[in-house]
Specification:
The complex is a heterodimer of chains A (about 250) and B (about 120). Chain A is of the alpha/beta class. Chain A contains ten helices and eight strands. A five-stranded parallel β-sheet of chain B has the order 2-1-3-4-5, with helices on both faces. In chain B, strand 4 (about 75-80), helix 4 and strand 5 (about 100-105) form a beta-alpha-beta unit. In chain B, helix 2 runs parallel beside helix 3 (about 60-70). Classes of the chains: A alpha/beta (about 250), B alpha/beta (about 120).
Chain lengths: ~250, ~120
Amino acid sequence: MDDTLLLNKRVLVVEDNKINQMLVKHSLAKYKVHVTEADDAKSAIKALKEKEFDYILLDIFLPDIKGYEVATIIRKELKLETPVFAITSLAIEGERDICIAAGMNGYISKPFSVKKFLDSIKSDFKIGDKDDKLIGFIAGDENTTIDLEFLYTVAENDKAYIQLMLNMFIDTMPPLLENMKQACEQEQWDKLRELAHYAKSSLSVIKVKQMIQLMNSIGNRCKTLTGLKEVKNEVNQLPGIYEKSKEILKGIPV
Amino acid sequence: MKKVLIAEDETMVLLSIQKQLSKDGYETVIAKDGREALQLIEQDNFDIIITDILMPFTSGLELISIVKSDPGKNIPILVLSALGQESTVLESFQLGADDFLTKPFNAVELTMRVKKLLHQAKK
């Protein structure tokens, strides 16, 4: 099962039934999901005002107000885009449409299971729609694709470490790219190769696919001294991809 | 607690290895270049050394050669290389390196290789 969509995610579970609450929490525990529980709509809204979440699981029948209304509040009043999944025991035709109309992204029938949740994330929450949010371990889009698996695997739950690595990447890349540009202009191919090699190390932690491809190509051309006309073009492409990566990295949840 | 020396000039990689191995329960000491690594080896006993190849002042290859030519020290060395450094990896093996990992590497693979080298050294 592709559990990377859940690893280290923060999930708000809005459910008044204690047993169902425990079932959800227990099922998610082994994926290192950080579960926050709310017994009713009021405490759910309070939690949403205080903290950020990656997903919201919302029971349709709550003691105070209906789940649809909570979803409407989340979208219209709190103006949050957090994916919301309805948990329901109903099998009424049209139920699903009502949930979607209220701004929810998915629909999970009781009893809750991780598999149903994952299926819903994949099918209902359209992956790729929000291209600056982290989906699984891959952030970005087809032009700027960032694989963060290494970062997240090493970090586990250490948010300070993730932030440190993101900041380091953002801060150290521009002077490095500038040095590459200078080395290229001065046709110092050995130096350029060394710089590309060094950049690849940083890029082995935060893997911007398109930058790695360029670094590999630049390194090879400088090593074999072939296709050197292309090198300048490749070096010049790097800052643009870096800028896009920076924006994407600033948008990912830490 | 087993003590690991990590020599790597790129800080993000250095700190990532340190983080991963700390999680695995090792005591980690870091060096930002080969010269610093050699000084630390003089002063302290390490159970394993992880080293990059291209580093300022003293390269990984020099480091391997110095450590492995000292009969008093029998420290396993794991070499970090990058794609395109295949010939250098061969050279590091000739100098006595025990294993290598190519960047980008998988964090779990790092854990496994360190564990394996320490296990072999125990025998």
